[in-house]
Design a protein that fits this description.
The chain contains 7 helices and 9 strands; from the N terminus they run αβαααβββαβαββαββ. It is α+β, with helices and mostly antiparallel strands. The strands form 2 sheets. The chain has a 7-stranded mixed sheet with strand order 1-2-3-4-5-7-6. It has a two-stranded antiparallel ribbon with strand order 8-9.
């Protein structure tokens, strides 16, 4: 396939639910993405611990729980993205398993996967979103309007803790309230307006 621009390329990307037959390809995308894109932010020991977790049997259970979708280009899985409930009250969804093969980063596939996961979560009644972002993906999620709420670690089976940022995306109502707070309001002492 030949593409004239990014829009043409994204129009050729299809999304579909992950199946058990995709497990090997999904693991490959997740391992390759983490190994290459996280190398600047994680030690080799941390990367190896994460890869070992991706290879464990229970990882596929996590995939099934994440309502995972695959981004497909030319019949190949080039990215994944999903979501699951983040709390018992049904208000917050956790965006999970956003991975894009390094060759395809910067093409808009990550954004497409996050937006699709958010839309599926909204249809299920969730209006707020969180994520546990590996340190290397914080800037991407900030670009997607997530804000860091705290830092922490993600434990691995081998006992190595990976640094992560817990991030939250405000609902449209919360964003509107925040914008209204930023409007100019009068200051009584000298009649000037302030932010």
């Amino acid at each position: 396939m030949e593409f004239q621009n990014k829009s043409d390329f994204l129009a050729a990307v299809t999304l579909r639910p992950a199946t058990i037959d995709d497990l090997s390809s999904i693991r490959y995308v997740h391992m390759t993405s983490f190994r290459i894109l996280a190398a600047e932010h994680h030690s080799e020991n941390e990367i190896q611990a994460r890869v070992e977790d991706i290879l464990r049997t229970e990882y596929f259970e996590e995939i099934l729980e994440a309502d995972l979708y695959c981004a497909i280009v030319d019949n190949e899985i080039v990215g994944t993205g999903g979501w699951c409930p983040a709390d018992d009250n049904g208000a917050t969804a956790r965006i999970r398993k956003i991975f894009v093969r390094p060759l395809f980063t910067g093409c808009g596939i990550g954004r497409l996967l996050v937006e699709a996961a958010e839309e599926r979560a909204r249809r299920a009644g969730f209006n707020e979103f969180t994520t546990r972002a590996n340190i290397n993906s914080v800037a991407f999620f900030e670009h997607m309007n997530f804000e860091i709420s705290s830092y922490g670690v993600m434990p691995t089976r081998s006992g190595v803790d990976l640094p992560v940022a817990f991030m939250r995306k405000r609902s449209a109502v919360q964003l509107q309230e925040q914008m209204q707070k930023r409007k100019l309001t009068p200051v009584s002492r000298d009649g000037w307006w302030s932010h």
